[in-house]
Amino acid sequence: MFWAAFAGATRRTGLITLFGDPNSERGGANSIVIRDLYLRILPILMANEDRNFRHDNAPTHTAYVLRDALRDMEIEVMEWPPHSPDLTPIKNLWALMKAEIYKLRPDLIHMKNNEQTKAILVETAQLAWDQLNLDQFKHLSETMPHRVQAIIDSQGWYTQY
């Protein structure tokens, strides 16, 4: 699992590989892992920004431990209807990333699911993230008002985004 964020057209994190919490029920990247990431990254990323954060509304991102951490950092989370992943522009970046990964390593699709393939995927994903053009980030940032209006117009249902 990967995590990344961007602020406007010029500020972005690196692509961060998330490792699971061995103490969690399924061993995955739970809200504690995400909270620790937020505490390390968001104050730096959002310095001098509007302090309004957007995420995809996934349960891991909306847990109380994360709400409390964001409140303590004085970072406001944009509210939107549940089941509206089309509001967050990072989803578009994941699609661009996937296309770039397969362009760089088309053989990944046929590789076995093992540690060697995982290492290749992580390395290729890092390279793909670094190759994303800043204009793509700028464009996605500029679409936010249109995304919000589209959700309002569709009364919370899916949109073209």
Query: What is the average of the pLDDT values?
Result: 85
- Count of alpha/pi helices: 7
Assembly level: single chain
Q: Please report the distance between the alpha carbons of the first and last residues.
A: 23 Å
Q: For the largest beta sheet, what order do the strands appear in spatially?
A: 1-4
SS-based class: mainly alpha
Q: How many beta-strand segments?
A: 6
Shape category = globular
Strand content: 5-15%
Q: What are the low-pLDDT stretches, counting only 5+ consecutive residues below 50?
A: none
In this structure, how is the largest beta sheet organized?
2 strands, antiparallel
List the helices and strands in order.
Answer: EEEEHEHHEHHHH
Helix content: 40-55%
* Rg, Å, rounded: 17 Å
Structure description:
With 161 residues, the protein is mainly alpha-helical. The chain has helices spanning 31-45, 59-62, 64-72, 90-104, 115-131, 134-142, 144-153; strands at 2-3, 6-7, 11-12, 16-17, 52-53, 76-77. Strands 1-4 form a two-stranded antiparallel ribbon. The chain has a two-stranded antiparallel sheet with strand order 2-3. A two-stranded parallel sheet has the order 5-6. Strand 2 and strand 3 form a beta hairpin. The longest helix has 17 residues, at 115-131. It starts with a strand and ends in an 8-residue tail after the last helix. The model has no long low-confidence stretch (mean pLDDT 85).
